[in-house]
Amino acid sequence: MNETDPDERSPDSAERLETDGGMTDVQREQQVDYLDVEINLLKPATPFMRDHLRIIWIGFAIWTLTTFGPITLTRIAPELMTATMPAIGFPLHYFLIAIGGPSSALLLSVWYARKRDQIDEKYGIAQMRTEEMETPTETTGEEVTATDGGVDE
Amino acid sequence: MSLAVTVLQQELLPEGLNISFKLLPGIIVVTMMLSFLGVGYFYKVADTENMWVAGRSIGNVENGMAIGANWMSAASYLGMAALIALSGVYGLAYVVGWTTGYFILLIFLAAQMRRFGKYTAPDFVGDRFNSDAARALAAVTTFLIGFVYALGQARGMGLVGMYILGDITAVLPIPGVSAYQAMMILFMVVTIGYLALSGMLGATKNMVLQFVILIGAFLIGLLVTGWSAGFSTVLPQLEYGALISELSAEFSAPFAGGSYYLWVATCFSLVFGTCGLPHVLVRFYTVQNERVARWSCTWGLFFICLLYLSAPAFAAFGTALYGSEIGAVYGDPGMSSAAGDVIVVLASQLAGLPTWLVGLVAAGGIAAAVATVSGLFIAASSAISHDIYANIINEDATQRQQVLVGRLSIVAIGLLTIVFALDPQQPIAALVGFAFSLAAIVLFPMFFLGLWWENANRQGALAGMVSGLVLWFIPMLNEGNFGIINGGDGWGIEIIATWMPAVGSALVATPLVFLVVIVVSAVTDEPPVDTKMMVRQCHSPDPMPKDKTAADVVAEKTDNVPPADD
């Protein structure tokens, strides 16, 4: 279970940026960019969004096939699809819908989350960890920190 | 007693279920409820910051489990196996819709929602579209979803409760109240009492506990049922395949329980409803960062799949046992919908499991209902206290007042649920399916376009939400739900019933709402630049501090002044 724990995989690669207090020029530059580019699902405006949307659309296309494909094929070719599978005895359509659909979505999710981590790495994006979360002006309190301790395994 | 009441009582008595007071299962349920209350008391909180999103401090796997727990409602635990048993392959549309929807949520919404950083769905809609009217519409929708969804849960609690505690009207006769009704009221009161005391932090802790109990009870029940009935050994999730050929053809014949169109429409509604459900989305505000949002969504799907890959096996075992011990499952009279809704418990009972083990399975069903109702009522009450009361009615509301209004609205929605669940007209899964249609039609387009198209504006959102609400009500009333039109018969317009069934109305209505939002937004003024920047900030790869919202970042950039509040 630990292998996918995000806290352990947070890329430490890029130079540790000062997340408290002021921001480095690199960061400010990136932020300026993003607040000034148009967000349109069909027209990705930055390299990061282009890479990201590419995996989103690939995933979506495969998802459409695994979700609605089996029932549609069953409609088109009922004879073929209701054939009994060897060894496990399922009718083919039943297996593809009841087991194939949910499992594919799970595998696709893992695939997407990993791909997205790779993209993060490529662009040197480090997620903030709990200790770095609070900005200095903030006094939201001990309570939050205290619960964190018990929560993260 | 009038005839109607007698008929009703018969309808909601699952045939074959052993309805009597059982001590051990009773103790299991009471212990469970007490531990929920204990945990709830321990985390009892008084300030709204903690009450609503648990201080946004919840980690990856734990959040995944919480997603799983509030997903695994009575509809998944009981209702899905019921539909698979009664409607065959059509029932699988629920299995597919309620799992694969998480992938869409993951790729399009989860991380962006986290970056937007607003507490509730109405908050998102209100801030994104700069409109208190839009916020109010979203709050009303959230409340409606919670209410319709809870109806199914209440039905589940009442039916399963009868296995454990028997007919409490035999001990405490209340005129005009059937065994099902008495049990449903009892468990709703317990849920409401608990919820009124604890906020979200308690509920979240609880949900992990409930998830463990629930999945444990379900999987152990399935394993032992399959084993003692001789259907399976160690992997019933695959072994039930060999049993299918021995069951009636209706169980696996492709379109015996519903047409191809109905299957696709239902599945579509459930998928996009998943992406619009307020009590699911609120889970993504409780995580540290967007990476955790993504992975906890994936974990959530994993935990959900554990149950969803097992439910068809339970349905197959239940169908086989019902057929051999009670009577024909299909045809007339066939299995009643009440028996279907408890098929999971019934299967364990018919397989000859010891009473305490059947009781554990039943208790899991009740835990499932309680967990989901908690999440729903919190979302609904925060819609009322936070979005309508504090943002519109009384802008100077103190935290104490907000908490009070929140608690009162929990009691109100609970009472409303009890009244309408006295005579539920549909099986559990269908009742819950209506809530998904609503979320898919009204809320999903707002989230999706709001996050992915910066030019979506206030006018577009308002037009879209109003037309969405109308489009949702048309098939609902046409099919006679809520018992308002023609004494529950509805208008019965054939063409609407065929092409826009209430349970799958999103297939037609969601694209229409998208169209309305896009066209109206395109012909009216573009949203202000601050709003556009907020949308842009949601897609920036730069890490964001946990205590900041997209709006704060935009405010800092435009004014160079840190946000005053918070």
Give the SSE map.
The complex is a heterodimer of chains A (153) and B (566).
Chain A (H helix, E strand, L loop, with lengths): L5 H4 L15 H12 L10 H30 L1 H4 L10 H31 L7 H4 L8 H10 L2
Chain B lengths: L2 H9 L11 H20 L5 H6 L6 H12 L2 H14 L1 H28 L4 H8 L3 H34 L2 H4 L7 H19 L2 H29 L7 H4 L1 H4 L15 H15 L3 H4 L8 H19 L2 H15 L11 H5 L1 H8 L4 H39 L5 H23 L6 H25 L5 H21 L15 H6 L6 H18 L5 H11 L10 H10 L7
Please characterize this protein's 3D structure.
The complex is a heterodimer of chains A (153) and B (566). Chain A has seven helices and no strands. Chain A is an all-alpha fold. The longest helix of chain A has 31 residues. Chain A starts with 5 loop residues before the first helix and ends with a helix. In chain B, helix 5 runs antiparallel to helix 6. The N terminus and C terminus of chain B are likely disordered. Chains A and B meet through helix 2, helix 3, helix 5, helix 6 and helix 7 of A and helix 4, helix 6, helix 12, helix 13 and helix 14 of B.
